[in-house]
Amino acid sequence: MKVTADIALRIADLTKVIIPEAEMDAYLEHYNKVFDYADELQKLDTENVEPTTYILPIYNAFREDVAVEGVTQEVALKDAPAVYNGGFKVPRVME
Amino acid sequence: MTKYTTVIGLEVHAELKTKSKAFCTCSAEFTNVPNTHVCPGCLGLPGTLPVLNKQVVEFAIRAGLAVNCEIQKYNKFDRKSYFYPDLCTNYQISQLDKPICLAGHIDINVDGEEKRIGVTRIHMEQDAGKLVHSGATISTSDYSGVDYNRAGVALIEIVSEPDMRSAEEARAYLENLKAILEYTDVCDCKMQEGSLRCDANVSIMPEGATEFGTRIEIKNLNSFRALVRAIDYEVQRQKEVLEDGGRLIQETRTWDDANGVTLSMRNKETAEDYRYFPDADLVPVIIDDAWIERVRAELPELPAQRQARLMEQFGLPKYDASIIVSTKAMAEYFDEAVKTAKDAKGVSNWLLGDVSAYLNNEGISISEFKVSPANLAELVNLTKEGVLSSKLAKKVFTEMLKEDKSPKALVKELGLEQVSDEGAIMQFVEEAIAENPQSVADFKAGKDRAIGFLVGQIMKKSKGKANPGMVQKMLKEKLQ
Predict the structure, then answer these.
(1) Domain end position, chosen among B393, B414, B435
(2) CA-to-CA distance for B370 and B460, rounded, in angstroms?
(3) What is the ipTM of this complex?
């Protein structure tokens, strides 16, 4: 698969990143290196290989269901750029 | 006009009754004070790591077994990425391709017809925060305040197969599912408060077709009534679009309960693309047979089993039993009352009749009902023993609603004991005969209806307290 400028702009849009036009070629080169590597991996025969989702031999790291006091509202909102009625103030979410 | 078949699938989110959140130790209790059940973890601050609450897995297994699912031994969590301020990590921890439960079912009964609705899957995930909008609606608000108290609270999402064919079937499925979640005590199922939420996927196809039509997802269904109304509205809307030669587009719509319509929801994001990938901060969960079997052995009696028991043990009709078991609190009330009641059907009649009417009227649930099961049982017994006529029993019941007193005491207090004394009744009978010669003549001339008038007169004389059975019998004997 070849990453085109259209695809790159779509990814940028989804991830809220701006790709300046002047840097597009550099981004495309970077993306395509990743995809080329993925293409290499696709060539491997994985017929009898179990899918791996986690590489360390650890599982079932649980905690017991005990509630602990967190932070106060004052602390929670201390670094918020703006506050509305005890909440983090955010701009319009729907068009 | 083309005939259409409706196809419905439901996605139900249930907040689990854990004390703490799914991946951090904050309290999962509801509170009205914003951002007070939060910590660096659920606020998405750098340097924090999620650790799974074991009780979440326990509850998910329990719910899964209760709806006949197969519990999956290997579980992992994935990140569902999206930019929306209700989660400050910009992703929700969920399960994509390895959900904890697969392939279950729930049986429903609509108009006497049994039907099995498939449960595709149940997965564990975290809830999002709550946005309080500055304006009247989300679209007219210039800004919103975000409260993260709910962010990170444990949820299970129960996804059904598209097996339902009418709003009534969807309602029955949701009612049964809700009862199961209540009985298993994994969720408090308060739809109005949002601890149980339902989205409906609705499409229509020409009758006899095999390929489903374009699927529309409806959100914001927070009552059974809203579910039924929204589906009925949406089916009609889709028919009209197709009949006008239009095309339906796959979209998400929101139910506007005040206006009784579904509205298109256009998010700023372009088409959904959640870019799921495994959450490497969380290790896999492996559930062994011993764990599954222990949970299975600890499962409480479920609604279907309870219904069968009420029918067998107390001879209740299926209809009565199905209504009593539909909420756990009602079923427990019944079980408590029949411990001392001498007539189980009598208890059922009260619960389905006057008690339900009162609860609906007051907008409360049976757990808030003042009359104790023991006192309701006593009322049933007084009627059964002939101390109270059904009319007077209703009068006593009205008094019990004011104060949960023993009906026996109330009967005395109000002087309502039924008169079963032959001498006293005979006096009323004789008076009535003497005062109403025309009715007596009518009866003797073969007009059976005249006896009803005479009985009425006698009851009036006794202020409703004469035993009606005895009145009938003695009056007839006297007239013969």
Answers:
(1) B414
(2) 32
(3) 0.84
